[in-house]
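> forwarded from #structure-qc
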């Protein structure tokens, strides 16, 4: 039994174009995702403690990802509160509400 819902794995796989995922593999994928998240978070906590801090930061998570040869996450350095929206048709699935920006505004 994983703390990552199988429904979340199914929705994520569909969002990246994998629509024919067998229901038999969902529990194994959920367990693997949970393991990898725990592994990254344990490494991030080590980075936090090494820096003699008690608050985990996005930099700690990025450092943990880098140590595991995973590309760091971009775009979460803001101090603004995040606004979550419930995904349509899913009771326990949320996403971060983001406003659309024009590419030309970014490069100017």
């Amino acid at each position: 039994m994983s703390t990552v819902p199988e429904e979340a794995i199914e929705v994520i796989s569909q969002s990246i174009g994998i629509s024919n995922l067998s229901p038999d593999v969902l529990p194994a994928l959920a367990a693997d995702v949970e393991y990898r998240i725990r592994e990254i978070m344990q490494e991030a906590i080590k980075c936090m403690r090494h820096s003699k801090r008690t608050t985990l930061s996005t930099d700690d998570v990025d450092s943990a990802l880098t140590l595991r040869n995973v590309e760091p996450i971009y775009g979460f350095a803001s101090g603004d509160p995040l606004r979550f929206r419930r995904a349509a048709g899913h009771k326990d699935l949320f996403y971060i509400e983001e406003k659309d920006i024009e590419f030309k505004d970014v490069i100017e």
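QC bot note: Strands lie at 84-86, 94-96. The mean pLDDT is 85.
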